[in-house]
Design brief:
Layout (H helix, E strand, L loop, with lengths): L13 H55 L3 H4 L1 H8 L10 E7 L4 E7 L9 E10 L2 E11 L1 H45 L9 H18 L2 E9 L2 H8 L1 H17 L6 E6 L2 E6 L6 H14 L3 E3 L2 E3 L3 E9 L5 H17 L5 E3 L2 H23 L2 E12 L2 E15 L3 E3 L1 H11 L2 H16 L7 E5 L2 H4 L4 H12 L6 E5 L2 H4 L2 H14 L2 E7 L5 H7 L4 E4 L1 H4 L6 H17 L2 E4 L5 H10 L3 E2 L10 H10 L8
Parallel strand pairs: 10-11, 13-15, 15-16, 16-17, 17-18, 18-19, 19-20
Antiparallel strand pairs: 1-2, 1-4, 3-4, 5-7, 5-10, 6-7, 8-9, 12-13, 12-20, 13-14
Helix pairs in contact: 1-4, 6-7, 10-11, 12-14, 14-16
Length: 619
């Protein structure tokens, strides 16, 4: 199922092999040579010390004899010879002893256990003979070290055997370990360590081989890109160990349903890919994808926990092998993206319009970055009003981004904000809007609030609170005049983290509003857990007032709940007088919509504030 990078096991390089061999040889030689040399040298030292003692003893006796009888040097040769060879001497090695005069001429000599020249190797010790303090000669003793040398050679033979064995061990074991480590590293470089499947690099290599063969044989190749549905929920609820076990269970099911000629690889996380290099395409890929979708929808047993996930599959087919591996995988990813976007748990084949959509997305992303760098974006302000005794009064404004592209024309926010959130460009765009809105609010003649929409991507940034704090500090806007509008989606992934961020924002003095209230699934529950200053009734309910009993009931319930919780309710999308009157009858006293004012430039809004210094009647 998985691909290998080569048939032969990897071997160490020539330089590494040579280095290990040299080191092993040096250690083997050291073991073979050092013990016998040390043994021999220690024996030489011992023999030299023994000879030194004997020579001193003889020298002392000869000096005493000469002191008593000055003629002893010439007259007592026999006695001196006896001193050189005393009775009872049992020497283990041959040696020569002699007495020489001050000129180095031999006077008396004696051989002990030797009949001629001493065999090599040998050692010699000399001790002077004194007569009234003057040196008159010396005693010399030479001893053969043949026996010691033969014993050292025996030690050398034993050490040589040990050295040779050491060389073999030190040469073979490191090479085996090195080659094992290289093989392991080579395997890890080509496989996923958790599942043992081929990785992305090997998949590309095998896919390239399949496409090359398809070009020769006019065959077809299919790539199936798989992504597990709801895998993250398993990791979050049961832990990563359960997630790893689930991945291996998934791999077992996949292996059981593909052919031996297919290549199965793990691309990372919960993403897999299958290369079908043989068979009639696209029917084979369609049949396999259908089986896998059904198979992955069946429950998995993870240590007593029944887990139900699913799989989305994107399929790319190359007829005749004309595509490249990169193109095939890219097309498979695009088809996978379409399968997930259309509800998951399904498979889709790549279509050319998918690639066109991708190219358009990339072009739009590039244009957004250019727009941010060149100042093509603009912040407009829509009045937020509240009822007063003699009309309505502007109590705030919502900052809304607008983009007029030199090539695309006027771009509505819903045409580029979703892509900005997917690509992360919303982070710098969102900070820019907040900074522009706060700076503009500082120029208004009335200290009203300014509301800024916050993307889920922005809110989850670790430094989001610090960014808000920096904007307030740099612009000088009091924190209580800034209102951040967030949707309930920011709380769905990690409630504890969201609550911590909101508490920190409240500590700064910033006001919080729940935007698009009523469109989610858990709005009431979140209002109980999180402290909001305002809820904004979604315009879809406002537009249905007077026409839909459901819309009337929801607006009535939301307004009543806001009063009960002590927070304000703002109705968005008010476009007619009838809607405004119905909202007023239901008890809502904050409004926003075209009926009270369209989004306008900062300069136009400042002029409106001057004109509306007193409460005005809606137009």
């Amino acid at each position: 199922m998985t691909a290998a990078t080569g048939n032969a096991p990897p071997r160490a390089g020539l330089a590494v092999t040579r280095t290990i061999t040299i080191i092993a040889a040096c250690l083997g030689l050291a073991i073979a040579i050092l013990p016998p040399v040390a043994y021999f040298m220690r024996g030489v030292a011992s023999e030299s010390a023994s000879l030194q003692i004997q020579a001193r003893l003889i020298s002392g006796q000869v000096s005493g004899l000469i002191a008593r009888s000055p003629d002893a040097w010439q007259m007592q040769e026999l006695r001196l010879r006896l001193l050189l060879t005393p009775d009872g001497v049992d020497l283990t090695q041959p040696e020569i002893r002699r007495i020489v005069d001050a000129q180095g001429i031999e006077a008396i000599s004696a051989l002990v256990r030797s009949t001629g020249l001493l065999a090599w190797p040998r050692t010699i010790q000399r001790v002077p003979i004194f007569d009234q303090g003057a040196i008159v000669g010396s005693v010399e003793i030479k001893r053969s070290l043949t026996n010691l040398f033969l014993e050292a050679m025996k030690v050398f033979l034993l050490a040589a055997v040990l050295g040779l064995a050491s060389f073999v061990v030190l040469r073979i074991i490191p090479m085996r370990l090195l080659e094992s480590a290289i093989a392991r590293a080579s395997w890890l470089a080509a496989h996923d360590p958790l599942t043992g499947l081929a990785n992305r690099a090997v998949l590309r290599e095998r896919l390239g081989d399949a496409l090359a063969n398809a070009r020769r044989t006019k065959a077809s190749v299919a790539v199936l890109c798989l992504d597990l549905d709801h895998f993250k929920e398993v990791n979050d609820t049961l832990g990563h160990a359960a997630g790893d076990r689930l991945l291996n269970e998934v791999v077992s099911r996949l292996k059981a349903n593909i052919r031996s000629t297919d290549v199965l690889a793990r691309l990372g996380g919960d993403e897999f890919a299958i290369v079908q290099a043989h068979g009639n395409q696209p029917s084979f890929a369609e049949a396999l994808a259908g089986r896998l979708v059904d198979l992955m929808s069946e429950p998995f047993d993870l240590g007593g926990h029944q887990v139900v996930i699913g799989v989305s599959i994107g399929i790319a087919v190359s007829l005749g092998g004309t595509s490249s591996p990169e193109t095939m995988l890219q097309h498979g990813d695009l088809a996978l993206y379409r399968a997930k976007a259309e509800g998951r748990g399904a498979f889709r084949f790549f279509r050319q319009e998918m690639n066109d959509t991708l190219m358009e997305r990339r072009a739009l992303e590039a244009d957004m970055r250019t727009a941010l760098a060149e100042g093509q974006f603009e912040v407009c302000f829509q009045p937020q009003v509240s009822t007063a005794a003699n009309g309505v009064a502007i109590h705030g404004a919502e900052a809304l981004i607008r983009w007029t592209s030199p090539t695309r024309g006027v771009m509505r926010p819903d045409m580029f904000i979703p892509l900005a959130e997917e690509t992360g460009i919303i982070i710098p765009i969102g900070e820019w809007v907040m900074r522009q809105a706060c700076a503009a609010a500082m120029t208004w003649r009335r200290p009203i609030s300014v509301a800024v929409n916050v993307s889920t991507v922005q809110f989850r940034r670790p430094d989001f609170v610090e960014t808000v704090e920096a904007v307030l500090r740099d612009t000088g806007l009091p924190a209580q005049r800034l209102e951040l509008e967030i949707t309930e989606s920011v709380m769905m992934e990690d409630e504890a983290a969201a609550m911590l961020v909101m508490d920190r924002l409240r500590h700064l003095g910033v006001r919080l509003a729940m935007d698009d209230f009523g469109t989610g699934y858990s709005s009431l529950g979140y209002l109980r857990k999180f402290r909001f200053d305002k809820i904004k009734i979604d315009k879809s309910f406002v537009q249905g007032l007077g026409e839909s009993d459901e819309a009337n009931a929801i607006v009535r319930a939301v307004v009543g709940m806001s009063h009960a919780l002590g927070i304000s309710a703002n109705a968005e999308g008010v476009e007619t007088k009838a809607q405004a009157e119905l909202l007023t009858l239901e008890g809502c006293n904050e409004f926003q919509g075209y009926f009270y004012g369209r989004p306008m430039t900062g300069k136009a809004f400042s002029e409106l504030l001057v004109e509306a210094a007193e409460p005005v009647t809606a137009k």
